[in-house]
Amino acid sequence: ALQKWVNREISNFDYLIQLNTMAGRTYNDLAQYPVFPWILQDYTSEELDLNNPAVFRDLSKPIGVVNEKNAKAVKEKYNFEDPLGMIDKFHYGTHYSNAAGVMHYLIRVEPFTTLHIQLQSGRFDCADRQFHSIPATWQALMDNPNDVKELIPEFFYFPEFLENQNGFNLGQLQISKEVVNDVVLPKWAHSPEDFIYKHRKALESEYVSAHLHEWIDLIFGYKQRGPAAVEALNVFY
């Protein structure tokens, strides 16, 4: 698979799916769901210019420290000593892929809607915690080193998860009173289909092809643990 990928006989998307499968990740287990990277950092421009490296996220860094400002807090957390010596050191107390995160993204689509409601004791979680906007989700990641959710493969092929086709009542945001309905898209996307098309194009772009291995090292490779993980600020609880 690696050789095929290097020779460009398979796409970045296909290679990531194969890596997820080899790592034991599967659509049949929310706790080991396939994980994909955030690849863009421009969710505000009117047009998306895939020839401009500045629109892409730095794939060599864990999502928690893509924003340089978060690195200090993350290092401080790691240097905290557990007085009982029971807990190994870590940079992040939460994970880049977990069942709640998958349900968060897929809340508008069954069976994930029902699973989310079960998780929240029989009702929808409060609107402000829902997945309601792609630009706002990215901004929250940049502002908060404790939120380290990466993406799921659906962001690259499944426009329906961005639409509230079932008309679920997801509540309204506290401050703006905005009703949570379809997911708010970046300005450069004119419809859910357009978002998926451009996002997939970004995944297969020259920039991502040249840097994807850096993210793979963090999630599936040698920077998962040990000294390389500590140096990369990539140690998880």
From TrEMBL:
Keywords: Repeat, WD repeat. One of its GO terms (molecular function) is protein kinase binding. GO terms for biological process: intracellular protein localization. Residues 1-237 form the BEACH domain. Transmembrane segments: none annotated. GO terms for cellular component: cytosol; membrane. Gene3D superfamilies: BEACH domain. This is NBEL1 protein.
